[in-house]
Amino acid sequence: MNVQEFGKLAGVTVRALHHYDRLGLLRPQRTDAGYRVYSTRDLERLEQIVALKFLGIPLKQIKGMLDLNGLELPDALRMQRTVLEQKRKLLDRAILAIREAEQSIGPGRRADSALLTKIIEVIEMQNDSSWSEKYYSPEARAKIDERRKEWTPELQAQVSKQWTELFADVEAALGEDPESEKAQALAVRWKALVAGFTGGDPEIGEGLNKLYADKANWPAPAKEQMAPFGNPKVWEYMSRVMKCGG
Description:
This protein is mainly α. It is 71% helix and 2% strand. A hairpin with a 5-residue loop joins strand 1 and strand 2 (36-37).
């Protein structure tokens, strides 16, 4: 297919296709005369480009992801569906709250403050749950969403308790030699709790490292939630302990 035929088939403008070509995102074959020629394989890549763009990922980052990951179409579609389903749940909650408020407000009446508060809470809930997504690749986000299905409130309470106890134990051991048996035992507990979240997946681990490296730019609610774990001496000490443990 030439560029006009391909654009019509895909519902994308010729201008957009030219732009993707210039960025190296979607490079079709060329005829001897230099005209672009598109195939079904190009349509598969275009689908991934459009889907990732819809998820809010910059085009330059999309290129790196597609070139690096090389996901087969079924895996890419599965990942996209998981992320979009999670976003849809959040949007559905916001829409429902707004609809309920809309239906309860009669002509000439002011909105009940409780209804408006509910809308704000639902939308802020969406913002709070999505602020950290930028640190993870779409593949990692999809895996995290899958793991959330098993993350019960009881498990969350248990893990929070374990982190609180571990942090207190590390603070009490700041004077210990990082190579000591006691310090390395703390490292084992620390790694186990991190692995409980990442599942040992390197992509999730990479995103988690990026997230904690950017603590200064976290939203206020996240900073408040992490305040009990904000002692920089603990983080510095555990970094040295981890290095000693190899």
